[in-house]
Amino acid sequence: DAGITQSPRHKVTETGTPVTLRCHQTENHRYMYWYRQDPGHGLRLIHYSYGVKDTDKGEVSDGYSVSRSKTEDFLLTLESATSSQTSVYFCAISAQGQGVNSPLHFGNGTRLTVT
Amino acid sequence: DQQVKQNSPSLSVQEGRISILNCDYTNSMFDYFLWYKKYPAEGPTFLISISSIKDKNEDGRFTVFLNKSAKHLSLHIVPSQPGDSAVYFCAARGAGNTPLVFGKGTRLSVIA
């Protein structure tokens, strides 16, 4: 699994509550990413980080924030969860961005259900 | 506006035969293409890639073909095995460290 741990693996929460998902890597890779996977949409990028405290928005960033205070940890926060954020969330890492010799390695995902 | 399209949601193939998964893209600035494979309850895993300077890349049973003029790539699996049953995602990237754009995936079922 390329040293990537996502926690929790499953979570059920209520609409309006804050939720934080954690991604922890042991590879010391510079780049980290959060994707969500939904039926009929494939994988869509939420936010990514290219170093400690350096982050940028992806395609579907509304309603999400991220933080990276250490190389090994990348947190995804839903400030006020909505039902549309029910999804499977994947963290990914790469050493050199998404370059030719540096494909993404994904964690096993967090299944989030917002009721 | 979908930049990477996998128009077949599913594909069923007999064991031992060839599986061909297709992917089309619209952005002519894409220069690097990848295929990922995903089993249920697991994260996607990298399978094979190709850069725009090539038209073919082979790795064992897996071959990716790129037709830049048609903005089309395909993944060939020969021979197909039941363990190949999974969802396959096509992805593409522009120059520099721009993030990958993924297609919606094709579910391959290899029937024994």
Characterise this structure.
The complex is a heterodimer of chains A (115) and B (112). Chain A has strands at 4-7, 10-13, 19-25, 31-38, 42-51, 54-57, 64-70, 73-78, 87-94, 105-106, 110-114. In chain A, a hairpin with a 3-residue loop joins strand 4 and strand 5 (42-51). Chain A contains no helices and 11 strands. In chain A, the strands form 2 sheets. In chain A, strands 2, 4, 5, 6, 9, 10 and 11 form a 7-stranded mixed sheet that branches. In chain A, strands 1-3-8-7 form a 4-stranded antiparallel sheet, with no helix packed on it. Chain B is 0% helix and 54% strand. The interface between A and B is medium-sized, with 28 and 24 residues.
Shape of chain B: globular
The secondary-structure element order of chain B is: EEEEEEEEEEE
- Strand tally of chain A, please? 11
**Mean of residue pLDDT of chain B?**
94
Overall structural class of chain A, as computed from helix and strand content, comes to mainly beta
User: Helical percent range of chain B?
Assistant: under 10%
| Low-pLDDT regions of chain A | none
The Rg value of chain B, from CA coordinates, equals 13 Å
Which residues of chain B sit in consecutive blocks of at least 5 with pLDDT less than 50?
none
Q: What is the number of beta strands of chain B?
A: 11
DSSP strand content of chain B = over 45%
Secondary structure elements and their pairing?
The complex is a heterodimer of chains A (115) and B (112).
Chain A: E1 4-7, E2 10-13, E3 19-25, E4 31-38, E5 42-51, E6 54-57, E7 64-70, E8 73-78, E9 87-94, E10 105-106, E11 110-114
Parallel strand pairs in A: 2-11
Antiparallel strand pairs in A: 1-3, 3-8, 4-5, 4-9, 5-6, 7-8, 9-10, 9-11
Chain B: E1 4-5, E2 10-14, E3 19-25, E4 32-38, E5 45-51, E6 56-59, E7 62-67, E8 72-77, E9 86-93, E10 101-102, E11 106-111
Parallel strand pairs in B: 2-11
Antiparallel strand pairs in B: 1-3, 3-8, 4-5, 4-9, 6-7, 7-8, 9-10, 9-11
Q: What key phrases describe this protein's structure?
A:
heterodimer; A: 115 residues; mainly beta; seven-stranded mixed beta sheet; four-stranded antiparallel beta sheet; 11 strands; B: 112 residues; six-stranded mixed beta sheet; five-stranded antiparallel beta sheet
